[in-house]
Each structure stands twice: as structure tokens, then as C-alpha cells.
Amino acid sequence: MAKIAYRDAVRDAMSEEMTRDSRVFLIGEEVAQYNGAYKCSKGLLDKFGPDRVIDSPISEAGFAGLAIGAAMYGLRPIVEFMTFSFSFVAFDQIVNNAAQIRYMSGGQIKIPMVFRGNSGGGHQIGATHSHAPENIYATFPGLKVVVPAFAADVKGLLKSAIRDDNPILVIENEALYGRESEVPDGDYLTPIGKANILQEGTDVTIVTHGRSCWTVLEAAQELHKMGIRAEIIDLRSIKPLDWPTVFASVRKTHNLVCVDETKPFCGVSAQVAAEVQRACFDHLDAPILRVTSVEAPMPFSSALEDECIPNVARIIEAVKQVVA
Amino acid sequence: MTQKPLPTGAGVLATTQPLPDYGKAPELSREERLRWYRLMFLTRKFEERSYQSYQTGLIGGFCHLYNGQEAVAAGTFAAITDADPVITAYRDHAHGLMRGIRPGPAFAELYGRATGVVKGKGGSMHYFNVDKQMYGGHGIVGGQTALGLGLAFATKYLGEKKVCFCYMGDGAVNQGAFHESLNLAQLMKIPVIYVIENNMYSMGTAVERHSAPVELYKRALGYDMMGVRAEAQDFDLVRQVSWTLAERARKENMPAILELMTYRYRGHSMSDPQYYRSKDEVEEYRKHDPVEILRGRILSEGTVSEKDLDKLEDEVRKEVQESHEWALASPYPAQSEIYTDIYA
Known about the structure:
The structure holds two protein chains of two kinds.
Chain A: E1 2-5, H1 6-20, E2 24-28, H2 44-48, E3 53-55, H3 60-72, E4 76-83, H4 91-98, H5 101-104, E5 113-118, H6 134-138, E6 144-146, H7 151-163, E7 167-171, E8 180-183, E9 196-199, E10 204-208, H8 212-225, E11 230-234, E12 237-239, H9 243-253, E13 256-259, H10 268-279, E14 289-291, H11 302-308, H12 312-323
Parallel strand pairs in A: 2-3, 2-4, 4-5, 5-7, 6-7, 10-11, 10-13, 13-14
Antiparallel strand pairs in A: 1-8, 6-12, 9-11
Helix pairs in contact in A: 1-7, 3-4, 8-12
Chain B: E1 12-15, H1 30-55, H2 70-77, E2 86-87, H3 93-97, H4 103-110, H5 143-157, E3 164-169, H6 176-188, E4 192-198, E5 201-202, E6 205-206, H7 207-210, E7 226-231, H8 235-252, E8 256-261, H9 279-286, H10 290-301, H11 306-329
Parallel strand pairs in B: 2-3, 3-4, 4-8, 7-8
Antiparallel strand pairs in B: 1-7, 5-6
Helix pairs in contact in B: 1-2, 1-10, 1-11, 2-8, 4-11, 5-6
């Protein structure tokens, strides 16, 4: 086990898979000579050359579509969006082509590829650059969506995604790129569709994912001091979602708080709440509460922005309300 | 309404750069020429039957017919091989039939049956036959232009010396994905030929009402790309110019726009009352019919008798009728099929 930064885990995953399989290539804005806008592809151009690490012009629809076409032909592309907020420029390619072509071709075609990149708010870059789009993409059958929070998970999930025969979105977060955590040695895969219990507890289940995992862990320390033992589930994978792990935890703790950075309306937490009330109705001691981003575009001022994404104070307030 | 240019027999009408001289396309054998004629005639009869089936309510949704444009698909396909990938938009029956889809599964798809070429999951606009490198059949205007780029990119990545022909209607030239694809194709030297099937109307909007430059091949100028405008009612002329551009793509990895001037006899789709053009205009074009032109050429060459062509045409008519009946007798898909083919 070595402690490495999240961005280096992303790089290592791509490097290992490109070494293993010559059909894997990386395309995106600034991924080659610049070494990645967030340095996630550092050194890959030198290692694999310009035929496999490809700087694209700013043409999200064009290079996303190029990669989908290449995947239709049997290559295994990795598309880097500098941020997933820019993926909306390629929305038609992702949702109408990557997601639907297998179905519409009656199963003749596979789309083995990865879309990955930064997402989320908290960096004062304004509403258009701060989207957390995992709930949006998760609504399209044909796509898989994973949102790793830790270096070990982003490496293992990205490697699994590259080897998977479906189009998969690996949604990262700028706030996480510099954070270090332990990563297993050697070649390993993290299964897509399996949640991870970050902390066991008895009083309340907190279901979360992505950057919010770190916020929830911080909040859990405060809750511990108040005598509240929270069980924390990191979904890791939004589509498919590990319902058995979520349901088993709620049946144990009888309380649920959902925490995530998508919007409250039709967000990931809304989906979790709906399924849990159906499957665990008799086990719940209190209404399910959600702590999400707020129903507003992301403001620029940090004084406002800090209130718009899940924070420790809002999480503690919700948990206290549920266990009261 | 502006008068539309009628075919003159000139073939290539204009280019943005001098065309390289790779000489004449290799001669097709008598059998090969007959095969292409048969496929064009089959496409015509298939579409006529589809027209009737739509009118009688056998086909739901959209249905875009190819009547009048047959020499585009046939002439371009005959310039390459079945190993070269092709991809098109939603007016795709011809591209499917000419890349190995049998008329039975083709009709069955229109009728929503389990025996359809894509199991009743795609319909008229989404024919696929990957065995013969036919990659769809795509419903969003211009969306396939980036996919064609990717198919061509993949062949180059794998060092296969292939070319991808990516088809689109004239209406697609105004989509962003197309322009992004043109820039990437020229910048990265990707062997893709964008065939604009210019039938003069984007649905009901005539070219001069939807495109600032009416000469669509000139879109290539903005990307320092080869652009060619050619007439497209004559199979042999289409094949020759396509072959030149395909050779250039194979040898030099150079993309191109090939604007083929054609005409559709039917409406944009089956629900089109065609208020935007006159009956006289359609009749003028019918005098330059691509199926009749190739038929006349083959007869004048004297290698096939009229009797033999009549026989071939009767066989096709019979095949179309039997395929239609086979498709109608096919079962609908099982409900369980809703949930298959979503993930690999």
C-alpha cells in the first residue's frame, strides 16, 4: 500500500491499461503536451506517443463523437472532458449515440469506452463550470456512471471501466485531485456497481458519493462526539447502484440521510430516497432527509458557494433531525 | 421557387482543389455491373413497396424513401469494398440493402417484427449490418458525421489503409457536429469522405433557404479541404469520382467533401405534402432517372440482352413481394426483448 494523490491514481490507471491493451487511447483538450489541465495525464505523451495520447481542439461534440465511432469499430477510447460541465456540448453524442446505438442496432454494436474528467463546484468558477451531472447521465439506459471519491477507487474503477464493453462515465472532482489516500499495490480492479461501507454505525445510515464522502467523514467525527454512530456508505457507482448494501444498512440503523452534490430535484438522493422508502418502509423510524446542492445556479462568491454544496453544518443538522 | 439545376452528364462540376489523377477506376466485370444494377433496381422496388405499406398503415413512425437517389449509394459503394466502413443518416434503406441486408429482414424491421434486421428496435431510420461494415442508420441530423470520423480514425489507428464513406443530407451541413468533424478530419488527416446527398431540400426547406453558400462543397474551403461537386444520376460518373477520392484517402489519409447533386422523387418523409415544390419539377427530374440511365448503358454495351434484364427485374419484383409477405408473417418481438441489448 502506497499513499498517492487521486490525480496520480487516474494517470496510473490509464497508463497501466494503455500498456496492457494497444486499442486503448486517450483524447481530449490539453491531455498531451500540456499533460492534462489537471495533470491527470502527466507523462503519458512521452510514454505512448502522439498517436495514442491525442490533443484535440476545443470541439467536444467532435472528439466525443470521434471516440464513439472508434469504439464502434473496436477501439477502446478514453475521452477526457476538461470538466464534465463541457460534456453538455457533446450531449447528443453521449446520450443519442454512445448510450443508444447498441440497442438500436439490435445488439450488433458494442461501445467499449470511457468518458472521464473533473466535475462539481466549490472553486469559484461559476455556474457553467460547476455541474455535478451524474444524475443526468444515470437516467439514460445504456450508460454506466461511477463517481470515485478515493485514489484506490478511482484507479480500480477506471481500470474496470476501460475493460468494460459499455460506455462508462468516470466522474472525478477537482477538489479530490490533490488528496492522497492509500492505493493497493499491483494490478487490481474495483467492481462497477459495488458500494463501499466507509464506516460502520448503528444510529443512522448516510448514503453519499464523490467529494461528499470526505465532507460526510468530517461530519461523522462531530456526530461521534455527540454520541451519534453513523454508518457511511460510499455508493462509488451511481449506475448500476448497489441497492442491497443500502437496504441492509437502513434495515440495521432505521434512519437514512442522503448526501450528494447533485441538485435536489431529480437528483441522486431523490432516487435513493424513493427506492429506500419502497423497500424499507417498515424499518424507517423517521422521514428520509436529503442534503444536496441547492435549487440555484452555482454562485461565484465563496460566501454563497459554500452554502450551495453539502457542508458539515448542513449534514449534522439533518442527522440530528432524523435521529431526534 | 428557384429552378433546380438538371444533370448535364458532366460528372464533376467543381472542386476546391485540383483533383489528383489516379487514372480511371478499375473496370467492373459484366457480373459486377449487373449486380449493382440489380441492387439499384431492388432498392427502387423495395421503396415502392414501402410506400404502399406506409399508405396502408403497415409501417409506423417515420419512413424516408430513396427513390431517385439510387446512383449515390450504388456509385459510391462500387468505388470501395465491403471492408470499408460506411455510415449514413436516416434515409438509409439503400445503404442497408446495398451492404447485404436482405429485403426480408429489411421489411420486417419496417413492420416492427422480431425478424427485423435490428430486431424491431431501430425501425426505418436505424438499419445496421456490421458484418458488411454498415454502421447505421442514424436519426439525429449530422450526429453521424462525428461517428464516421471515428470509424475512419480507427481504420487509420489500426493501419488498415481503408476509407470511411459517411453519408448525410444537404440539411446536415448546418450542424455543429459536422463542422467540428471537418476540422478534426483535415487537422488529423483522417481518411473519411463526407458524401452530401444534395437532393435540394432539407425536409421542405430548399438549399437556398437553409445554406448561406448554396454550393455546399465550398464548406470544405473553411477547412483547407478538398471539396468536390458532382452530378449523381449516373452510376459510372459517381463511381469514378468516388474512386479518385477513395484512392486519395487511402494513399494520403486525406479527407474530402463529395457533394452529389441528386433528387428525391418522394417527399422528405411519408407525411410530407410537398407544398414547397411543383409537380413539373419532379417530372423534369424523373427524365434523368438513375436506374434507367444505368439500364440503358448496360444495354448499349451489348453484353446483356433486354430479355435477360427483364428476367432479372422480374426476379427482383418476385423477391420483393415474397420478402414483404415473409416479413408480414413474422412474429412481433417478445416483451422480454425490451430489456435486452441495452448493455454488452
